[in-house]
Amino acid sequence: MTGDEVDVARRTAAAMERADAAGRGAGVRLLDVGPGRARVAMTVEARHVNGHGICHGGYLFLLADAALAYASNSHGTSAVASGADIAFLRPVALGAELVAEAVERAMTGRSGLYDVTVRDGDAAVAEFRGRTRQVPGLAPPS
C-alpha cells in the first residue's frame, strides 16, 4: 500500500462523509479508512431501539453497509452495493458503542466482495457480506 493509495482512500471518504445524509442522520461516524478497508462507529440511542428494547436490525445493516461503502469506494472509483446479507448474532442494548469493520476479500474486474464484522466491544454482534460493482460513469463524491 502506497501513500498515494491511502491519500485517495482518505479524500474519497471525506467527500462521501460530507454527502452522506443518511449515515449522518443515523449517527454513523467514520473512524478509519484505507485501500479496501474501513471502520465506522455508532452509539445505540433511543431512536435505534425496536419494540423489544434492542437495536433494530435495520440500523445494524445500515452501519455495516456504511463500512462497505467506504471500503469499496476507497480505490477512488465509484462503487455501489449490488447485494448483501447479514447474520444477527446477538442482541444489542441501548447505549452500546458499535464498531463495524469492512475488509475487501476479492476484487475481480469491477466486482468486489467485502466482509464486515459489527462489534460491541470484543463481542461480534453481526456478520455482513456485501457485493459491490464499480460504476465508472457515476460521478465520484467531491
UniProtKB/TrEMBL annotation:
The alphabetized UniProt keywords are: Hydrolase
Gene3D superfamilies for this protein: Hotdog Thioesterase
Q: Which residues form the Thioesterase domain?
A: 52-124
The UniProt record lists the keyword Glycoprotein: no
What is a single molecular function from GO for this protein? acyl-CoA hydrolase activity
Q: What is this protein called?
A: Acyl-CoA thioesterase
NCBIfam families named in the record: PaaD, unchar_dom_1
Record-linked InterPro entries: Acyl-CoA_thioesterase_PaaI (IPR052723), HotDog_dom_sf (IPR029069), PaaD (IPR011973), PAAI_dom (IPR003736), Thioestr_dom (IPR006683)
Where does the record place a coiled coil? none
Say which species the protein is native to: Pseudonocardia kunmingensis
Per the similarity annotation, which family is this? Belongs to the thioesterase PaaI family.
Q: Specify whether Glycosyltransferase is a keyword of the entry.
A: no
Domain of life assignment: Bacteria
